[in-house]
User: Which sequence fits this backbone?
């Protein structure tokens, strides 16, 4: 609406503080717009003559006056009688300023509800006392939780339609509380208020006439008790690069600091490019003194001491606490696209200022917001919430949402439109940042024996048969049988087995995602050395992450052969040769591949062995044939 | 950071997004208080530079003080400013009420300028608290080929992720001041000492609160002749900012119709 409210008190210090942003949500027809109209009127925030004008307009149209009309500024809305889009309106109480965001309750308009709610610091959830919780009540509560809004005021409206019954209020209130608690919302920050929005009862004025049994705050009173948003100064520095300017002789890196702070002289790490440079100067226009430090929330610019190439989308951090690097993550998403989301879909993902092409690798589950259950479904319908695995060709810089909301959330874009948003969960996925060579002055030395000479002497080429698959798929069994078989044929062959290396080379490593990455890195290099010595190396590692296997391939690209020992989870679990699945199911082993940690099957392995269906002998014959086809080296 | 710092930082962020994402970009400069704040924030965003032209839609019916101020600032701040001329009122939709027809001239002038200069995007200094339809706007708001606004099907916009991918032929409006209020504008103008047209200050008991064409804009009763007294006045008023703008009030939907056709 038009203006700030009238102030009844002298201008206090509250003028300089940020207004609290409140979103009003709830099922269609539960009375959101009426509640907002009334709140405005009763706090004295409406311009003169507005109510009279709407009354006159209603009369002209032959309709009874409704408070909701005050907000329905667009003609289209009045005709349909529902709020199509969000409205943002400013009002104040004696305690502080508010921006009120009125979001539509209609199912079709979830995208508008999200547009409104994502900006809010707190929410008012309006529930009809008679109808109780309905489909959109639950969906909206779920979306609030997903958007990270944990301060919720529940207004149980239309108490007049249930004869102002305290019992009914308790009944509806208990159901709402139970649902919010199941979502993991801390009920300490929630209020439950019986109101009659139309009559202004418990909106600003107390509803003691009809609701004498209620002794808590009114709606406006509860709003005044909510906490202002917290700043993210304490979190590690994250500044997504928004642009690089060269308007004059300065080359300025520009962006907004989303968390933490930076100082002149700090060494910055840019991710994902992994480049480093120091801040030479912090730049600003129209300032008297040079700036030494800037912090979260500020849109800033700085120059670097070295002319490194950095571009929009990279995330600046300090070197000590950088974001994760990964080409894959799990996202809890809300899907707004017209067509259902399916595995294999390619979308553009925007994370801060970064843009990445991603592919939906897997839809893990679709969440039913009505009963909070989850379904295994292979598509996500419009307005549904799901957990999906997204993979990018490029390395992405990101954080888990629970560690940094700014760099832990993303939107999805398809055909020019934002079609979804989501939060990042990295449980079970490793940080893929490479540590690089720590020591200085390391050079490669050339051998005087060419590799072909070795192959000629051995009668076969060296190489790596990298067997990957679930525990129990048969990797070790096949590797040791093949080793024996090839040795008898005269091959220089050796098995690197997962369990064996963990006794020595990798005895310091556990099974956390980080340790798994390091385990595979070491084995990859060891296998590479064997292969260069002329050996045929057989490895038997679950090696669940595609990125790790790709990295081993990069160590020895011309001799790396990825072999997927492919048996499905239920087969492996039935076999369970080491009793590990049982332990994992009991929760005795954490992060067990296939049970509580992901397995990423190869997309294009050189060889796939169906060990679920074929016998060991059959599998062995296929492997033997593959070795003969690819590793025999004939003398010419 | 105080409240004004927060507003300014977000405005700078939006301006930088627009500059990065839109090839042929211009900033609408009405020379009023809001667009001066916007221009000021642009100079902050781009470290003293304004890396796109300003576009001034000239109805030819502005107050003389407006033209004087415009030409002075262009010279002093070394701005690149293109002027869009407006067609005569006789060419406008005769079903619109008279003042709205004047407003429609501005839309036509704007659309002519867009066609002539080939801009893909325009930055405009509208605010959500000004008027009901503006309350529903997006920061990045796509327009159809005729520059029309489809308020029924607006894109989602959250977490400061704006719709920055467009089908060819789409025109874009960017609104970096959407989250400011009238009071914020005045407080920021004061803090930053931004130059202003004298018409905003009371003379003989009258001042202009919002500046439009001189034949359809009316001053309000006021004795506020400094920024401080204007702020004081606004804190106690219950009259809307655009009350003096006739085109908003002729018919219930006239402003909405203007906006759907491309008005700011």
Assistant:
């Amino acid at each position: 609406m038009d203006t700030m409210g009238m102030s009844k008190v002298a201008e206090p210090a509250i003028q300089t503080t940020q207004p609290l942003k409140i979103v009003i949500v709830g099922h269609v027809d539960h009375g959101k717009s009426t509640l907002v109209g009334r709140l405005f009127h009763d706090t004295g925030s409406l311009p003169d003559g507005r109510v009279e004008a709407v009354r006159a307009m209603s009369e002209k149209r032959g309709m009874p006056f409704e408070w909701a009309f005050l907000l329905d500024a667009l003609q289209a809305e009045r005709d349909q009688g529902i709020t199509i889009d969000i409205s943002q309106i400013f009002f104040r109480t004696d305690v502080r300023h508010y921006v009120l965001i009125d979001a539509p309750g209609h199912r079709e308009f979830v995208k508008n509800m999200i547009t409104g709610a994502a900006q809010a610091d707190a929410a008012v959830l309006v529930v009809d006392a008679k109808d109780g919780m309905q489909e959109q009540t639950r969906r909206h509560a779920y979306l609030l939780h997903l958007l990270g809004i944990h301060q919720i005021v529940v207004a149980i409206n239309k108490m007049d339609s249930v004869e102002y019954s305290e019992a009914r209020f308790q009944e509806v209130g208990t159901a709402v509380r139970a649902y919010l608690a199941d979502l993991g919302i801390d009920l300490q920050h929630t209020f439950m208020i019986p109101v009659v929005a139309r009559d202004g009862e418990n909106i600003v004025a107390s509803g003691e006439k009809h609701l004498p049994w209620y002794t808590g705050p009114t709606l406006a009173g509860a709003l005044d008790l909510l906490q202002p948003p917290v700043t993210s100064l304490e979190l590690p520095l994250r500044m997504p690069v928004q642009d690089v300017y060269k308007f004059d002789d300065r080359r300025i890196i520009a962006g907004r600091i989303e968390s933490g702070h930076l100082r002149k002289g700090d060494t910055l790490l840019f991710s994902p490019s992994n480049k480093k440079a120091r801040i030479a100067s912090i730049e600003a226009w129209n300032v008297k003194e040079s700036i030494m430090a800037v912090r979260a929330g500020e849109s800033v610019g700085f120059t670097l001491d070295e002319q490194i190439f950095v571009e929009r989308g990279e995330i600046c951090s300090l070197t000590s606490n950088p974001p994760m690097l990964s080409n894959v993550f799990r996202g809890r998403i809300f899907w707004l696209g017209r067509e259902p989301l399916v595995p294999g879909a390619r979308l553009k993902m925007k994370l801060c200022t970064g843009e990445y092409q991603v592919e939906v690798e897997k839809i893990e589950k679709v969440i039913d917001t009505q009963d909070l259950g989850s379904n295994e479904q292979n598509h996500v319908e419009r307005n549904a919430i799901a957990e999906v695995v997204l993979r990018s060709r490029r390395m992405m810089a990101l954080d888990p949402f629970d560690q940094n909301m700014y760099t832990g959330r993303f939107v999805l874009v398809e055909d020019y439109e934002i079609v979804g948003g989501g939060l990042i969960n990295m449980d079970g996925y490793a940080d893929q940042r490479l540590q690089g060579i720590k020591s200085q002055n390391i050079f490669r030395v050339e051998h005087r024996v060419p590799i072909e000479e070795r192959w000629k002497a051995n009668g076969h080429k060296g190489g790596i048969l990298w067997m990957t698959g679930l525990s129990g798929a048969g990797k070790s069994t096949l590797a040791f049988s093949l080793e024996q078989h090839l040795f008898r044929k005269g091959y220089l062959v050796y098995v690197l087995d997962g369990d064996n290396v963990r006794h020595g080379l990798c005895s310091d490593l556990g099974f956390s995602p980080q340790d798994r990455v390091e385990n595979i890195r070491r084995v990859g290099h060891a296998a590479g050395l064997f292969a260069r010595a002329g050996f045929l190396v057989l490895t038997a590692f679950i090696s669940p992450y595609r990125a790790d296997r790709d990295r081993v391939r990069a160590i020895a690209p011309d001799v790396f052969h990825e072999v997927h020992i492919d048996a499905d989870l239920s087969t492996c679990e039935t076999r369970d040769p080491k009793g590990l699945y049982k332990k994992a199911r009991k929760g005795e082993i954490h992060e067990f591949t296939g049970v509580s940690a992901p397995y990423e099957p190869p997309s294009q392995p050189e060889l796939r062995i169906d060990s679920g269906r074929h016998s060991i002998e059959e599998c062995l014959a296929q492997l033997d044939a593959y070795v003969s086809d690819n590793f025999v080296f004939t003398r010419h | 950071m105080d409240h004004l710092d927060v507003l300014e930082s977000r405005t700078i962020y939006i301006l930088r997004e627009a500059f990065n994402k839109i090839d042929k970009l211009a900033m609408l400069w009405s020379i009023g208080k809001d667009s001066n704040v916007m221009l000021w924030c642009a100079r902050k965003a781009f470290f003293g530079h304004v890396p796109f032209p300003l576009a001034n839609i000239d109805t030819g019916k502005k107050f003389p003080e407006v033209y004087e101020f415009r030409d002075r600032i262009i010279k002093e701040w070394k701005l690149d400013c293109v002027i869009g001329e407006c067609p005569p009122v006789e060419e406008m939709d005769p079903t619109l009420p008279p003042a709205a027809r004047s407003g429609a001239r501005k839309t036509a002038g704007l659309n002519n300028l867009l066609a002539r200069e080939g801009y893909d995007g325009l930055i405009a200094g509208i605010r959500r608290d000004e008027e009901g339809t503006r309350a529903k706007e997006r920061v990045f708001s796509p327009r159809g080929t005729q520059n029309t606004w489809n308020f029924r099907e607006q894109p989602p916009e959250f977490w400061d992720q704006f719709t920055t991918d467009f089908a060819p032929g789409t025109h874009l409006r960017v609104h970096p001041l959407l989250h400011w209020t009238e009071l914020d504008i005045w407080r920021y103008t004061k803090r930053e000492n931004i130059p202003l047209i004298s018409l905003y200050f009371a003379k003989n008991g009258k001042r202009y609160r919002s500046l439009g064409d001189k034949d359809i804009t009316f001053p309000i009763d006021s004795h506020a002749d400094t920024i401080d007294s204007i702020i004081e006045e606004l804190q106690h008023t219950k009259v809307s900012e655009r009350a003096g703008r006739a085109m908003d009030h002729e018919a219930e939907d006239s402003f909405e119709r203007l906006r759907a056709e491309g008005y700011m």
Chain A has four domains: 13-224, 239-318, 327-425, 451-631.
